[in-house]
Amino acid sequence: MTAPDLDSLRLLVxxxxxxxxxxxxxSLGIAQPSASKRLSTVERRLGLVLVxxxxxxxxxxxxxxxxxxxxxxxxxxxxxLLDGAEALRTQHEAQLRVAxxxxxxEYLVPGWIGELKRGDPGLYLGLEVTNSDQAAELxxxxxxxxxxxxxxxxxxxxxxxxxxxxxxxxVVPVNHPWARKRRPVTAAELAITPLVVREPGSGxxxxxxxxxxxxxxxxxKPLLELGSASAVGNAVIAGAGPAVIxxxxxxxxVAESRLVPVAVEGVDFGRELRAVWPAGRRLAGPAAALLAxxxxxxxxx
Length: 301
What we know:
The chain is α/β, with parallel strands linked by helices. The chain has helices at residues 6-18, 21-28, 32-46, 62-93, 102-107, 109-119, 132-140, 187-192, 203-214, 229-237, 251-255, 285-300; strands at 51-54, 57-60, 96-101, 125-130, 146-149, 158-173, 185-186, 194-198, 221-226, 243-246, 259-262, 264-265, 270-278. The chain has 3 domains: 6-90, Arc Repressor Mutant, subunit A (Orthogonal Bundle); 94-164 and 273-298, Periplasmic binding protein-like II (D-Maltodextrin-Binding Protein, domain 2, 3-Layer(aba) Sandwich); 165-271, 3-Layer(aba) Sandwich (D-Maltodextrin-Binding Protein, domain 2), CATH 3.40.190.
């Protein structure tokens, strides 16, 4: 005996509930002849007469009503299975939720996640890539278990841990006058030069502005605002203007002579990259494991 398909069982249940093949077919959005053919197929597979067909119409036989009752329970159990699977999927999705700023997400976090997954292959992890302000806010609101940010300033409402150090570098295309400059660019020169910059809320943008303010020359003068370190680097290569971006983002372009790093005098572009999570909350499980991996890798750099 071959089991009927689920759509045919749904049709049979609807015939029982609505009292006619025509109404059941309309409810499922199929033509009545197609519905009749499906029911005939079910009858052949089960070896039972399920529908009493007369000139006045069609109705389920006593056997048909019994089978429809059983079919209704099968479909109900299937719905329970699907609901349960969705609940399990949601639970897996919530095992570890991470947000990371663009630079960290591009150059550091994937390696940390890879190491975590090697130790726990069944772990379901969701990573949201955004800027530092938004990553911090997601952590503050408890929408992620752990965030990674580049922001240099205080982060109220959050516990923090340094996971890496980074340095921002002034870069220009190979044909820029500064590429042949023998002495460092001064803080004042940099402050009056329009730069390709990250968007407001970016940790890189905040670090550049904070460093220039500390040097007494004010924030950067934006020429073009872009949403990622790679976009900034590509704009510089294309000749849009100089930029100050993470050294993590320029290694290949400098090695392949697409970008030239330029020394800057009197400005400290060093920074700490930090993990963040809600203040007062103790990290445990996968979140604590990921933080430990990040810290361990920072010590080895």
